[in-house]
Amino acid sequence: MSTWPGLVAFAPDHHRTDRFRCGVEQLDVWLRAYAGQSQRRDAARTFVVLEEDRVIAYCTLVASEIDHGGATSEVRRGLSRHFPIPVCLLARLAVDERHQRTGLGRHVLRHALGRALQAATEVGMRAVVVDALGGASGFYRRFGFAPVDADGTTLMITVAHLAAVIGQTDG
């Protein structure tokens, strides 16, 4: 298994995205056209893995909330129905096609979940939510994410389970 470098905050003026292709156009376009803009406007935080100055993988995190009807029973358990449920949205996670199936996606997921777990120590957060694009729901299910909707594209995991998942993604 390869050892991957740590993720760094995306710097659009210094990190090349022109050759990034993950196989899901929506994820490619987000990185090139919207990640930097969202970061500058404090709407999202994107972290990247670099090969020299070229982005080869990234994830984007956003503070969010969901209604009780959009949560799994485990996430809803014990919470008031009168208030939305605070969550961290793993808005994007993608790996360049040249580096897929190498463990890099697992490395990026571990980083994203570690950041969510750290944020949960400072800010109320019940779960991490992901909308799995491009048929990626199986990837997230392997790490304990549970589907919310019938088509299985929206998945979530409680903050209480993150430490175990982060350990599972090692190695």
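^ that was protein a. below is b, sequence first then the tokens
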Amino acid sequence: MLFINFLAILAVLSSCCAVAENLRGPRSEIVREAFGPFLGFGKRKLQRFQNRGFELKQSTTCENVSQFWFQDAVIDNFAPIEQQQKWYNMGQRYWINRQFWGGNNYPIFVFIGGEGEESCSRLTSRMYVYQLAQEHKALLVDVEHRFYGKSIPTPDTSTENLKYLSSSQALADLARIIGFIKKDLNTENSRVITVGGSYPGNLAAWFRLKYPSVTHASIASSAPMLAQTNFPEYMDVVGQALIHFSGQKCFDAFSTAAEIVANYLYQGFGSAGMQKVEKDFQTCSSIETDLDISVLLSDLMGNVQGTIQYNNEHNGVMNVTDICKTMTQSDDTYGNFVQLQQLYRSANGQDCEDANWKDTVQYLTETGAARSWTYQTCNEFGYYQTTDSKVNFKHRKNHSF
């Protein structure tokens, strides 16, 4: 049976990729690519995730921020001491901003890196924690997560080496580096507050629970604390947002369009319906397998998810009201949906839509954030966003991926 439910697709690189909005600084200081965030599982979506196309543009140098390497980081924090080996190359990367720090006895805010590359801009005025540091005369620290950015503890990211990629190892890394920084700066009495949003928010909360002697408090923003394979609640919020901002008509338009897409795909490979989908959504290649369908539909869903997740956060990108206006401009909901996806491709600089599972798998063999985060979600968290909820889009067909 074809896996054709538009809204029952795994969006592996999804909500946990974003830093929570309420940890950011003034909106006017935020600069993003015009096309905004990306969610989905096609090769081009993964490339943008890899290149942090959805993240803030980051400079390589920042005033008052210095970059360092923690060279005593250990590949396996839980191995016997005599078997512990230091990281490959330079060690774990971190940054410090002493601009407001009052010295010993004043607090230290530690920003925890997540599923992407960190940079010095994390400790600048674009982040809310910067304001907290100014208020409390605190030291600012940002620590890059193992297997992301330039903090790679092993010679490569083979599946064998990725066994060292886990939240538990990341928390242990954090305990080591915080102890080192406090000793190096002779500030043993400073209280530590860990900070994170989304997945790093999880780490912030877990760190407070697991290492209470190292941290005084944690700020865990938009943290999906309950790790679950099936995560239908995400799409619950997507549906609720459509209704909240633009009414039931918009919700129903997406639901109807999803059913029409499904009906075309149900006609089978090589059918007139399948060819229509390929033409209307300008797929980069012909659809030949159920998994090709899953890639296409995850990208189409990901576009809508991205708009809702970052609604009104940035100027110059579509918000929920905009996409609902397109979806309700005529009674032809399928035609409206086709037009909406064309608008996304134009804004994203794409000339076609991915629909090739083999391309996705091949891309994930390459070292980078997409490979690392896919491994973590598969091995440790899940967070796969389906429409298995009873309160989600109607006309759904609950096939398992």
